[in-house]
Amino acid sequence: MRQLGTLYFFCGKMGAGKTTKSKQLAKEKHAVLLSEDEWLESLYPNEIRSFEDYIKFSAQLKPLVKMHVQNILSVGTDVVMDFPANTQKLRKWFLDMASEVNANHQLIFLNLNNEQCLRQVAQRRIEQPQRAAFDTEAMFIHVTKFFEAPEASEGLNILELVQHSVIEPEK
Can you provide one Gene Ontology molecular function annotated for this UniProt record (predicted)? Predict the structure, then answer.
């Protein structure tokens, strides 16, 4: 029987470091890295001007991405997704994606507080000026209203990172 790939995905507030960690993990695991920002930018250039636009286009992308990821996992290749898993509904999408093809999964929860995230968002504005319109404290506050921390009851394999330390989940 062929070994399936593992699906890795991230939960964390805006600015928690999901993109940075996803790139590191993909390199460590020799995995395929898929970035929602890159897909959205390529498919819908200059069309995402608000959080509502993001929600709309992200939803349009999901069926294609799901099928693509399942095909990659099915041939035994690990996939690291730089797509936010910041609500129970989104995490269920990731879990279903893996379980429908009997692949393993790992949710990496970057558990940083608001102050840490806002510092990193401010730093990102400096390093990536093209993101300055979205990387604001107001957008952080808006987006954070929707954030739901993962819970054991969701049936996920959760690895929680707090300020770059690791907390193993309770069994």
Answer: ATP binding
pTM: 0.90
Tell me if 102 is assigned to some domain: yes
CA dist 4 and 118 (Å) reads 38
Print burial letters for 125-159: b (CB count within 10 Å at least 16), e (below 16). beeeeeeeebbbeeebeebeeeeeebeeeeebebe
Range of the domain at 41: 6-167
Q: Within a domain: residue 125?
A: yes
pLDDT at position 168, please? 47
Total count of residues recorded for the chain: 171
- How far apart are the C-alpha atoms of 3 and 6, rounded to whole Å? 10
pLDDT tens digits, one per residue of 38-56:
999 999 998 988 889 999 9
Q: What is the C-alpha separation between 63 and 52, in angstroms, rounded?
A: 19
